[in-house]
Amino acid sequence: MNRRPPVAVAAVLSAALVLSACGGGGDAGGGDAGAAPAAPAAEAGGPLDLAGAGCPATVVMQQDWQPEAEHGAMYALVGSDYTVDADAKAVKGSLVAQGVDTGVDIEVRPGGPNVGFQPVPALMYIDEAITLGAVNTEDAIAGAAEQPTVAVVSQMTVSPQILMWDPASHPGLSTIKDIAAKGVPVVTSGDIIPALLQSQGIIRPEQIDTSYEGTPARFVSDPTILQQGFATAESYIYENEISQWGRPIGQQNLADYGYSIYPEPLAVRADKLEELRPCLEKLVPIMQQSQIDYLAAPGPTNTLIVELVDAYQTGWTYSEGVAEFSARTQVEGGFVKNDPASGVFGQFDPARMQTIVDTFGPILQQQGAIQANPDPTELYTNDFIDPNIKMGS
Q: Does the record's keyword annotation contain Ion transport (predicted)?
């Protein structure tokens, strides 16, 4: 379901290049942990004490893609005593929130090729150790019957998915609709986006091309196309890191065309909601604040993210420059902001959830992914949200 494909650097354009996933060396030491002072322990019984709140000894968080700045709130909680398991593709350390040790550990696992591209709900039902998973709303709809999940906090408010184009190939045009009207191929990695655009009469069936594998080769060789990307990555990468391109791209947010999903909200298995309730009462506000704190000072977490990409050796590349651009764009582009309906950060809007189900349910039914629309109220809860946590406050 439109999980992000890998964006590789320009070197992938060379036919001679072979991406080699060098064998990871098991556990590796963390970020100079011996030199870093240990975080003070959280006050017993206080809001940051997770050990006494029924949380697992290790809070396992499953992402849907490779380490990147869009996942900063998770990685920002990894303490300086972390270890990296390059074979298992995981980082583990003390869960440190707002400068204090919460008394439990955190383990962050990447998704995508690291897990055979399995949807996060499927992973959560295979491995009961996963506490929270990043589940895009359309994936939650698709899994509602067999692998139901309940989103407990939104980390990004608006999807940064875009379609991009070459301005020189489409002079004077500035929207997806106008460029698509020329009949050009619309190249994506999945079928949700083209189905959404086709349902609105913006593209025709013959324009749909779901062969995008994440490299820049197709776009560079045929710049007339519309191609999937992320506002938080591609414009920087193409202009600064792909020497065969090296100039700006044109782009428009797919949110402008009804791609209204909550991107990567954190969810629990529906059958574990009540068991985890005491933990979530403290953990969800920590996740709200972690995203805000990360975006205010992303540097240290970005360094960890880049370190993990290098350690995992999957062929995915990610630079400090992209990470910095992403963190800045998440805020400046309005992708991470307070819930417009309530003004609270991380809260879900019931009316928006209904719209998401009404929009994507029929598409998924037509594609044979579901038999009927789920009840949108069963896909999320605001029970654990701290209404006092807001960006800019």
A: no
As given in the structure block, the two tokens for residue 56 are: 């697992």
CATH architecture of 24-157+262-378: 3-Layer(aba) Sandwich (3.40)
Distances (CA, A) of 59 to 104, 143, 283: 7, 23, 10
pLDDT in tens, 85-100: 999 999 999 999 999 9
Looking at the chain, the whole-number percentage of residues with pLDDT higher than 70 is 91
Residue ranges per domain, the chain? 24-157+262-378, 161-257
- What is the DSSP annotation of 95-119? EEETTEEEEEEEEEE--GGGGTT--
Tell me the sheet residues that pair with 287.
Answer: none
Give CA–CA dist 90/28, Å, rounded.
11
Confidence of residue 36 (pLDDT cuts 50, 70, 90): low
Q: How far, CA to CA in Å, does 330 sit from each of 212, 323, 339?
A: 24, 11, 14
Residue 83 has pLDDT above 50, yes or no: yes
Pick the CATH number of 161-257 from 3.40.190, 3.40.50, 1.20.58, 1.10.10: 3.40.190
Task: Please identify which residue in the block is written with the tokens 């963390």.
Answer: 30
Query: Tokens 């707002």 belong to which residue?
Result: 98
- 17-34 pLDDT, tens digit per residue, is 232 233 334 555 555 444
The residue with greater pLDDT, 309 or 31, is: 309
Q: What is the predicted pLDDT for the residue at 281?
A: 98
State the amino acid at position 316 in one-letter form.
Answer: W
Quote the pLDDT of residue 382.
98
> How many CB atoms are located within 10 Å of the residue 240 CB?
14
Buried b (16+ CB within 10 A) or exposed e, 357-382: bebbbebbeeeebbeebbebeebbbb
**Could you check whether 24-157+262-378 and 161-257 share the same CATH topology?**
yes
Q: Are 48 and 97 in contact, with CB atoms under 8 Å apart?
A: yes
- Cβ–Cβ under 8 Å, residues 226 and 179: yes
Can you count the helices (H) and strands (E) in the chain?
11, 13
SS3 breakdown of the chain: % helix, strand, coil, rounded to 5?
35, 15, 50
pLDDT of residue 106: 98
| Per-residue confidence (pLDDT) for residue 37, from 0 to 100 | 75
Q: What distances in angstroms separate CA 212 from CA 165, 228, 229, 356, one per listed residue?
A: 14, 8, 10, 25
